[in-house]
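This week, study the protein below.
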Amino acid sequence: MVSNVKGYSTESVAQHVMASILAFSNRVEYYNQRVKEGEWSKKEDFCFYEKTIYSLSSQSIGIIGYGFYW
């Protein structure tokens, strides 16, 4: 059985959500893998941009949840 526990790790969950949003928008996992594969060291200049990284300053986000308290 899975259930909510009032007040348990509320801040940690919110922090994890924000970290996931930043990791996704900056493509952290993709670039981490590409660096491990040696792709960055093959570049002639210091820059390594294979995919577009969008600025969050012009973005909006909506978070919808169905939390409840006992």
User: Anything to note?
Assistant: The CA atoms of residues 30 and 40 lie 12 Å apart. The two ends are 16 Å apart (CA to CA).
